[in-house]
Write a structure and sequence with these properties.
By secondary structure, this protein is mainly alpha-helical. 57% of the residues lie in helices and 5% in strands. It has a 5-stranded parallel β-sheet, sandwiched between helices. Strand 6 and strand 7 form a beta hairpin.
């Protein structure tokens, strides 16, 4: 309803409508009338008051008959004096003069602001009732009570709105009848309408712009009696908007307008925003990742955040509990959709190649299995009470000796520090001086206290002094040092070629015997008695021999089905869980172990070939058909290592190859007559003796290579 121009109100027909509209505005939106009156002078306000009073009297006269009925016949109370029409008019004019004049004068002339509506309606209604009551002869106090009750109920409660409100609640929607609900046009409804928020939400869902505007008006209105319903409706609408969002990164922006307060659900909206912000951040993190595996892990974390959100809001007040639970269920749908899409991408993405054949395995990024029996034996020897006299770690080529000693950290006791020096490094085999410096640097890098001992050793004398000082510090710190010399055969060859003096093995022997906190480990594919230049068995007679065997079937299975159990690098973690039962079909692991006889290098070679073949074929699992193709390819790609292991034209063991070639045409052979050759082949893990004393090749893969590649 529009407020008329107060200065245009006069005595014409048009002014009459404007005066009635002014009275209606005084009833439902007095603050607008108050603001308009403030722009008028005092004299103009008196004029508008008088003119409006004259326009209102004809309608108030019509209240005589219903007023008599309500105040006289309905209560059944006796009148104190007879009544005539003239007296009715006289007392009505009295009531109107008192009520309307006082109300209009105080409201329009003095502009009472927030109390304006009370003064006008209370004085007007009370004055009418008072005049009618006195006119029919009712007692003063009864009339006064009726007047006060009529004015109070009209101004504050306005109970006559409730039937219309309950009708709208019963129908469930405002629809096109929005203007008929009092809350949309009467700004002075001092009684909070029950469940008004439901109507507001439903209307805003149908007409968003107008509905939100009305909700904001109720929240910001001078009279706060419908404010809670407005705040409730606004919160519910925001929650529904959050439930419809397709991009969870936008939740922060949507929930930023959630209202806050110090009572009821308003005290919990901040917690809702904070929990939703965690969901938003997790979605941002997931979208920032470009690898499907990492994104999948992030989306799984997103679902966890949504679960935590539901758990928290479920105990909140309404509308937070029901509305945000419904929104969170919709967010679950978004997260599940992302997981489904990522699963498709993962199926399309190549299987990561984590199997490594030929080099020492890095357990933090490549397929690795702990050789538990070997580690346990090493620990027992190193931690012996009086100190270990040294260890010879012996094994055929490609059985994983270097992998074992390069991955000892974390498996030995915390007091044990391991240092690995490859004797094939130029600084190791060039001369005794460079070897001494290399040993000191590697030990210092692992044991910082050794860096403070003094200048870097340059010969055997200073090297031994360095070891002695280290041993003293180790004793004081209650620590042990394991020095691993990989490919130790280079020491023997160095002495034979004059790069090292004969004092080197003597120095090593003295250190083994004297330095009880230092354990020397010599790793190689030869026994001491096989080396030609130095009598190592004499120098290091007390060394314990630990042999590295091929994999057991359990170790092969663990390597293939849980290859990254110890991986720590992010790029390697992508392969976690990809090589379980879903990748290897039944019987494949057993077939690989049997075909390679558990030879670590060959197991890794076959597994790597399978992964490459699966990627080429675009499949995500290995069946027996794929396995057979991979075995054929592995025999070809492993040509070099097969020749090395089978002594192909070996100058060191020239008699071995002629004997082994006999297996090209026959499965079984009699053992060789030469005792040296017989012992060599037994220790080489190439031969298996049958029940009738015949020999056959132990590794079926080597037999296929011998027949098909030589």
């Amino acid at each position: 309803m529009n407020l008329p121009n107060l200065e245009e109100i006069g005595f014409g027909p048009g002014s009459h409508r404007k005066a009635l509209r002014l009275l209606a505005m005084l009833y439902c939106d007095p603050l607008r009338v108050h603001a308009a009156c403030k722009r008028l002078g005092r004299a103009k306000r008196l004029q508008v008051t008088a003119v409006t009073l004259l326009h209102a009297w004809p309608y108030l006269l019509l209240l005589i008959i219903p007023g008599r009925w309500l105040l006289f016949h309905c209560p059944g109370l006796p009148a104190t004096q007879p009544i005539t029409l003239l007296l009715y008019v006289q007392y009505l004019v009295y009531g109107l003069s008192v009520g309307l004049s006082v109300g209009l004068v105080f409201c329009l002339v003095f502009g009472l602001g927030g109390g304006l509506v009370f003064c006008l309606v209370f004085c007007l209604g009370g004055g009418i009732v008072f005049g009618l009551g006195v006119g029919i002869g009712l007692s003063f106090f009864y009339v006064y009570g009726l007047g006060f009750g009529f004015g109070f109920s009209s101004v504050f409660i306005r109970f006559y709105y409730l039937p219309a409100h309950w009708f709208f609640l019963w129908t469930g929607r405002l629809g096109g009848f929005r203007n008929y609900h009092p809350v949309f046009w009467d700004h002075c409804c001092f009684y909070p309408f029950p469940r008004l928020e439901r109507l507001l939400v439903d209307y805003a869902e149908m007409n968003r712009e107008d509905g939100e505007a009305e909700i904001e008006r109720l929240i910001a209105d001078y009279f706060p009696y419908q404010r809670r319903a407005g705040l409730y409706a606004k919160t519910a609408l925001i929650a529904r908007d959050a439930g419809r969002v397709q991009d969870l990164k936008k939740l922060d922006g949507i929930l930023a307008s959630l209202p806050e307060g110090e009572k009821g659900f308003l005290t919990q909206t901040r917690a809702v925003r904070e929990k939703a912000a965690a969901i938003c951040r997790q979605q941002l993190h997931a979208d920032s990742l470009d690898r499907p595996f990492f994104r999948e892990q992030a989306v799984i974390g997103l679902r966890a955040e949504i679960n935590a959100f539901i758990a928290q809001v479920s105990g909140f007040h309404e509308p937070l509990a029901s509305e945000f639970r419904r929104a969170a269920n919709a967010w679950f749908g978004i997260a599940d959709g992302q997981l489904a899409e990522l699963s498709k991408e993962r199926r399309r993405e190549p299987t990561p190649q984590i199997f490594r054949a030929g080099d020492p395995v890095r357990r933090d990024a490549e397929a690795f299995v702990v050789r538990t029996p070997i580690i346990a034996t090493l620990e027992n020897e190193i931690m012996a009470g009086a100190g270990c006299p040294g260890i010879l770690l012996y094994g055929r080529r490609r059985v994983g000796k270097s992998t074992v000693i390069n991955n000892l950290d974390g498996f030995l006791p915390g007091a044990v520090m391991s240092v690995v020096v490859s004797m094939q490094a130029p600084a190791a085999f060039t001369s005794e001086n460079t070897l001494a410096g290399l040993l000191a640097r590697e030990i210092g890098a692992r044991y910082p206290a050794a860096q403070r001992i003094g200048p870097e050793p340059t010969d055997l004398i200073t090297l031994y002094q360095f070891f002695s000082s280290c041993n003293t510090k180790l004793e004081a710190d209650h620590r042990r040092l394991l020095i691993c010399l990989d490919e130790f055969e280079e020491l023997d060859e160095g002495v034979g070629k004059g790069r090292f003096t004969e004092g080197l093995p003597k120095t090593l022997r003295e250190s083994v015997q004297s330095h009880r906190c230092i354990t020397w480990l010599f790793a190689g594919s030869h026994r001491f008695i096989d080396l030609p230049h130095v009598p190592w068995s004499s120098y290091l007679v007390s060394l314990r021999t630990i042999e590295v065997p091929p994999f057991t079937e359990a170790e092969t299975r663990l390597l293939l089905t849980d290859p990254l159990q110890h991986a720590r690098r992010p790029e390697a973690r992508e392969g976690v869980g990809m090589f379980g039962a879903s990748f290897w079909e039944a019987g494949v692991v057993e077939r690989i172990h049997g075909y390679t006889a558990g030879w670590p290098h060959l197991v890794q070679l076959v597994a790597a070939t399978i992964v490459d073949l699966c990627n080429t074929l675009g499949i995500d699992h290995c069946g027996l058909d794929v396995l057979e193709k991979a075995l054929d390819k592995s025999v070809t790609s492993g040509d070099t290592v097969m020749a090395e292991l089978m002594f192909y034209r070996s100058e060191e063991y020239p008699s071995a190859w002629p004997y082994l070639t006999g297996f090209r045409t026959q499965e079984l052979q009699s053992p060789p007559a030469d005792d040296g050759l017989r012992m060599l082949l037994k220790h080489s893990l190439l031969i298996r003796e049958t029940a009738d004393g015949k020999w056959t090749l132990r590794v079926p893969m080597m037999a296929d290579w011998l027949r098909n590649r030589t």
